[in-house]
Design a protein that fits this description.
Elements: E1 4-7, E2 10-13, H1 19-42, H2 48-63, H3 67-70, H4 76-90, H5 98-105, H6 111-126, H7 133-136, H8 139-143
Helix pairs in contact: 1-2, 1-4, 4-5
């Protein structure tokens, strides 16, 4: 049995650990963010609104990919990417408080996005027909009845 394998761009662990997947996604998102920074410097500083539109369209989809699965836990590596971009846009140092940088940029922490994705994913599984594979592979499908104790893995 291999400990990790890639499936549709997401690194999946045989033990359902998501640290390697989050690490790989954050490295890809960091590369995309650096491309935005290179073009920002090349074209003499984009407008702040354009910079955040580029971040939302190019970096967020990468970093939030698969977050319905791995987003149950606060991931500092994911939060680091947005914090770094906000500090770059503001032109402040790396030791500036993250909350201050996010607030000045008018942004929310990314955990708001990936916690929401977890809830959306869970609701989609609950609404599935009992014969679908996604339902069968969840604790609801194994127990054959809706038991709140069987939902502990989501909390």
């Amino acid at each position: 049995v291999t400990p990790y394998y890639d499936y549709l761009g997401l690194t999946v662990s045989s033990r359902m650990l998501w640290t390697k997947a989050v690490h790989n996604l954050s490295m890809k998102a960091l590369k995309a963010m650096n491309v935005i920074k290179i073009f920002d410097k090349k074209y003499n500083n984009f407008d702040v609104i354009i910079s955040f539109k580029l971040f939302n369209k190019l970096v967020l989809p990468i970093i939030l990919y698969g977050s319905g699965m791995w987003g149950r836990v606060l991931r500092h590596r994911v939060e680091f990417i947005q914090n770094k971009f906000c500090k770059y846009i503001l032109g402040v140092g790396a030791h500036t408080a993250n909350a201050a940088a996010l607030d000045d940029c008018g942004r929310y922490p990314l955990f708001v996005h990936y916690y929401t994705k977890v809830v959306q994913y869970w609701v989609r599984i609950i609404m599935m027909h009992r014969q679908q594979l996604g339902f069968i592979l969840t604790p609801l499908g194994v127990s054959r009845s809706w038991n709140p104790r069987g939902l502990r893995w989501i909390i």
